[in-house]
Amino acid sequence: MSFQDEHQETSSSDSTVSAGSPGTPDHWNNPVPIAEPTSIVSPQVPTVHTETRRCIELRRLHRFFGSTRAVNDVTFSVDRGHVFGYIGPNGAGKTTSMRILATLDLPSYGDAYVDGFSVVNDPELVRKRLGFMPDSFGTYRDVNCSEYLDFFARAYGLVGRERIERLKWVLDFTGTNGMAEKPIRGLSKGMKQRLCLGRALIHDPAVMILDEPAAGLDPRARIDLRRMIRELADRGKTILISSHILTELAEVCDSIGIIEQGTLLATGTVDEIHQQQANLLELVIRVLDRGEDAQKLLATLPGVGDIILDGCLLRFPFGGAPSDQAGLVARLVQEGFGVVEIISRKKSLEDVFLQVTKGLVQ
Predict the structure, then answer these.
(1) CA-CA-CA-CA torsion for 25, 29, 34, 35, nearest 10 degrees?
(2) Helices 219-234 and 189-201 sit at what angle, rounded to 10 degrees?
(3) Which of 82, 209, 265, 329 is deepest in the core (most CB within 10 A)?
(4) Model confidence pLDDT, tens digit, residues 16-41
């Protein structure tokens, strides 16, 4: 298809003030009375564009739906060029938080910032700097991929050579250039996800919000998606991503946050989250016989968590050092148990998630 030049976009300069610089108003961090759930009230803060490394920031974010607290006092930040994994079951508050960041909803209390701009006071400036890929999206079935991307390029004000070059780059990056003239209705789930990612990238945003981008993808498509996410981060883009596939988040994310029932329970790198938990390892011990007696003995030893017994196989979380593991095996042998096998492994991100949310996940 051909692209025609349009009128020149009118641009305006952004006001630039560094956060934390002299003269910053004291009222920025002052609490604002919580409004009734049916109304939307947020702190009144001046428009700023910071040069801080924090490219995404949530400050005491709340969102009420009637008596339901979908997001309850959530605070975290993501540094520029980092990938942040947002973990939680359905209904935990992930999508609500992301919709607020994408300016599709407003907080009941608190605020969120994208590249230094408030989603409450500067939504237009936020949209220029943010690309949003929702968990489900609508497409125009009777247009092809190139026409679809061109529509959004024009909506963002891209014109002339800039629009043509940006369309070409997005098609190449997402691997959809071979299908530029193909109708969207004929695309596979994986290709539609690539196209949706391209739509979010079309205006070259500084921040990307990806809500369950790997849902429904086959293994090869998920591998390609992880590669693209890491490449975007290497190019300096800040990415907030949610997923139910926790092992993949561990591979692609610089840090993670675990949310349940609207409350943020833990944040940090994957290693930091592991270290925050008392039992970092899982031990599997097989004895020759007397499995129940071995279970009773192990339950009295320090560092041993809840034991799962399967015949003569004992599985349990363990918080001791390697020397403590050796002492544990020596104690079993001293008490006359024949130890056939011992396996020690680091807990997976799924294990940590279940431990952090223990008693909360319904």
Answers:
(1) 40
(2) 10
(3) 209
(4) 333 343 443 444 344 444 443 333 33
Length of the chain: 362
Cα distances from 358 to residues 33, 351, 354, 361, in angstroms, run 32, 10, 6, 7
Give the number of domains in the chain.
Answer: 2
Q: What is the mean pLDDT of residues 233-246?
A: 89
Nearest-CA neighbor of 198 among 157, 169, 218? Answer: 169
Predicted TM-score (pTM) above 0.85: no
pLDDT value of position 52? 57
Q: In which domain, by residue range, is 340 found?
A: 279-346
Q: What span, in angstroms and rounded, lies between the C-alpha atoms of 59 and 36?
A: 19
The reply to whether 98 and 211 lie within a common domain is yes
The CA distance from 205 to 322, in Å, is 47
Cα 289 to Cα 122: distance, rounded to the nearest angstrom: 68
Separation CA 298–CA 287 (nearest Å): 12
Do 217 and 151 share a domain, yes or no? yes
> Could you give the maximum distance between any two Cα atoms of the chain, in Å?
87
What CATH number is given to the structural domain containing 337? 3.30.70.100
The DSSP result for 97-151, as a single string, is HHHHHTTSS--SEEEEEETTEETTT-HHHHHHHEEEE-SS----TTSBHHHHHHH
Alpha carbon distances (Å) from 193 to 135, 168, 218: 10, 18, 12
Residues 261 and 334 occupy one common structural domain: no
Question: Which two three-digit tokens encode residue 166?
Answer: 């940006």
Helix (H, G, I), strand (E, B) or coil at 274: helix
- Dihedral of CA 179/180/181/185: which sign? positive
Average predicted confidence (pLDDT) for the chain: 82
229 lies in the same domain as 334: no
* Structure confidence by residue, pLDDT tens digits, 269-285: 877 776 666 556 788 99
